[in-house]
Amino acid sequence: MKIVVLVKYVPEPTATWKFAPDLTIDRAGVEGRLSELDEYAVEQAAQLAEKGVASEVVFLTVGPAKAAEGLRKALAIGGSKAVHVLDDAIHGSCALSTSLVLAKALEKEGFDLVLTGMASTDAELSIVPSMVADRLGINQATFAGELSVDGTSVTIRRDTDVASERVSAALPAIVSVTDQTGEARYPAFKAIMGAKKKPITTWSLADLGVDAAQVGLEAASVRTLDVAPTPARAAGTIITDDGEGGAQLAGFLADRGFI
Amino acid sequence: MMIRFVLGLLMTVVCLGIAGRRLFFLYRLGKKFQPMEAERRLDAGPAVRAEIAEVAFQRKLLRWTVPGVAHFLVFWGFMVLLFTIVEAFVGLVQADFQLPVVGNFRWFGFFEDLFALLCVFALLVFTVLRIQQAPKNLGRRSRFFGSHIGPAWFVLFMIFNVVWTLLAYRGASINAQELHEPENADKMGFLHGAFASQWFASILPKSNLEFWETFFLLLSLGVLLGFTVFVTYSKHMHIFASIPNVAYARRPRALGALEPVYWQGKKVDFEDPGDDDVMGVGKIEDFTWKGLLDFATCTECGRCQSQCPAWNTDKPLSPKVLIMALRDHSLAKAPYLLAATGEDGERVTDGLAAAVVAEAERPLIGPEGDETAHVGEHGVTGEGVLPFDMLWSCTTCGACVEQCPVDIEHVDHILDMRRFQVLMESAFPEEAGIMLRNLEHAGDPWGLGGSMRLEWAESLDFEVRVHEGDKIPDDVDYLYWVGCAGALDDTAKRTARAVATLLHEAGVEFMVLGGAEACTGDPARRLGHEFLFQMLAMQNVETLNEAGAKRIVVTCAHCYNTLANEYPQLGGHYEVVHHTTLLARLVAEKKLTPVQRVDAAVTYHDPCYLGRHNRIFAAPREVLGSIPGTRVQEMPRNRERSFCCGAGGARMWMDENIGERINQNRADEALATAPDVVAAACPFCITMLSDGVAQRQQEGTASATVTVTDVAEVLLRSIRPDLVEDPVDAEAST
Fold this sequence. Notes:
- The complex is a heterodimer of chains A (259) and B (734).
- Chain A is an alpha/beta fold.
- Chain A has one domain: Rossmann fold, CATH 3.40.50.620.
- Chain A has helices at residues 36-50, 67-77, 95-109, 128-136, 189-195, 205-208, 245-255; strands at 2-6, 9-11, 32-34, 56-62, 81-85, 113-117, 139-144, 146-149, 153-159, 164-170, 173-177, 200-203.
- In chain A, the strands form 3 sheets. A 7-stranded parallel sheet of chain A has the order 7-11-6-1-4-5-12, with helices on both faces. In chain A, strands 8-9-10 form a 3-stranded antiparallel sheet, with no helix packed on it.
- In chain A, strand 8 (146-149) and strand 9 form a beta hairpin.
- In chain A, helix 2 (67-77) packs across helix 5 (189-195) and helix 3 crosses helix 4.
- Among the domains of chain B are: 2-31 and 64-233; 438-586, Rossmann fold, CATH 3.40.50; 591-733, Rossmann fold (3-Layer(aba) Sandwich), CATH 3.40.50.
- In chain B, helix 6 packs across helix 8 (195-203), helix 11 packs across helix 13 and helix 26 packs across helix 27.
- In chain B, the strands form 4 sheets. In chain B, strands 5-7-6-8-9 form a 5-stranded parallel sheet, sandwiched between helices. Chain B has a 4-stranded parallel sheet with strand order 11-10-12-13, sandwiched between helices.
- Chain B has 734 residues and is mostly helical.
- Helices cover 51% and strands 6% of the residues of chain B.
- The interface between A and B is medium-sized, with 17 and 22 residues.
């Protein structure tokens, strides 16, 4: 069984992001990393390979040249090879066009199961897995807190506020996993060195048969009008307990609709 | 005479043969270990100075007065006994032998006998100490807990036998000389002064004189030679091994900077490592032969153990037991290591005992959660040679290295083993991974990121200059390295503000790097992650070199150690000063004048990485002492013997679930001095001690007014009392 893991190289969340004149993030001015939420998917794939369930694990990303670093990080955790869709025309793509590129790349690579993180840590949309599923016409099971795979189907545990569901889907399918699946291993130095020797294939839009006019900033379905730094958090409210503390606290929460 | 000679010669050849074979075996074993680091050479000057100080004058032993003096007497007793041993050996062939020149002096015999008796006196002292401090009375509190007790008693007994038999031989010799050559009274002058030997002469039978002389001569040589054989097979090897061990030791001491990672004697290049390079020590033979010499030199005296913060809080780490376990394993695995290798390069294990093969397959570090792992009175048990928690309990405080009379490098060995676990196996306490990931991605252990690094300065009433782009301007006296804690931790930010204010008051021009500063890499390095350390360090060295930094002032003891001692390994050479040193200087130069009285009893805690690792003991005390009204107090364990706060060695970033908490132990010691203020000079010590003091305050056993703070903040109270901030509420800030 072949697993393809969709990973994203995101701007470092703790860094100060700068924006280019076209209001996209200036990627040259900020460190990047493999999205922390995708690490969970990478770890699950590595574990499935170790258990012998998966015979091949491939990492797939769409991103700028430096995104290859994110692939190297994933390859240090597991997998045997990676695919990098790199094309200047992709710059500024929205979720819809990104999902198009991913779907085409998945078709070309071939897969039985696709794993992804529950969201990216930059855009935080969580919608891309569903879009990819729709484009490919395959099953989707999102927000898996736990997953198990047999030869023909994938079963996940999906925790919501009111229930814990068990959902099963026939393969081929796409599954997004949450942080509940377990922290990614910390790769040993020799695994990091070993990852440098694993192959990364680079595809352009032309390789995928995607028309450049379908992607990029111009084709985006949403437009960024303005960006501004998040205002600094105002000082919190301190309630001193003078016998009425409990009531004041309840009032504070009630005012804000928490209770 | 003939019988005497033949028997004597036979004994000598047999015993020295056995001892020599053993030494040759150890030599061959050492050859199977790694070569020594290429940069570590035998420098004649420092080596000779160290031999004089530590071997001849017993400098480190004498730090403990009673056992130190006793050992001094035994050592020098044996040095002087060497003369009598030469006399005895030549006595085999020449009954009236005397040493040239001194042999004819009465005082020489007196001198020999005096040292022999002082040696016996020292043995009595050791006997009393061993009874008083027996593990069976004191349990883990005994420094001998885990040592070989039987062999230790046997050594004392044998030294006693060596001394009395030599004196008895000399007594018998006196009787024989006087009878045989009464006319030759001025010969053998030394025997006339040998008062103890004369006493033996007086009680020995006055007949069969030659028989008794031969008897005691052979007895004394037999005891001596037998003891020599025993020494080469026991922990008493130190009488030979300590000499090369001291000569090859890291100078001035195996503290401060850590050595880089070596393989086959050469530094490992992390950018392009060799395919077969092993990072750190994963098998016993990955230690260098100097490591094996360390293990062979350990005398099991337990001074390290008595000082170890892990051991003193009931954790499964004793530096002594660790070294002993590595020695035992080296010897148990030796037949395997010395076995021939087949054509495939693998060792031929056919002829080896099953126990040897099993020992060879034993992992050096046991798995996490190994139920069979135990450190007890009779050593270490478990799946690994060392238990997982033994390796990870070390705070790298250096108290063991500081104490070791024979310069064993415990911390270096522990770090080399950690390096293998982290770099090759990725096996370490899971929670430390959070710190490593944060360092990788955000450049600080909390994962807050560079954008937060200037917030601490916002509330100051003057502008802090932030370096951007170009070279640091000439009017800047110091680059202020704020450190992750100073920039990001609420309590340490107060220290950063206090230091900045004091520098500003003193007219010292300084600049900070702001977001361009990143963790020095100390926690990664002390955890064993040399690769991450090098990445952070090279990035910082590049930043500093591009800025043209020359003088740097630092508030964190760990940053200080790394910048001052470790960055030179990576091309960063700066004049680094700790803020306490700079403040002491500014006070001495009257650039800062403490005027306001601070009526407080201040107990100072020596941070390990400032004190033991970097010998800065006086400056913080001078600063505190310069403030009118303060009473500077000491804890029982201070300066070189300061007790760790528990945060070093990346322990700050690991859970502490075994035994008593180290910070609580130290905080209790501080509280016992009834302080108003507990002062330290490292943000991590302050965090640890604050937690410990807060715990007791919560329990109601410590005064609610005791504060834990940096030396700089105490000084600020005297210079700018208007600026003193309220203590950070520990609960609210976490």
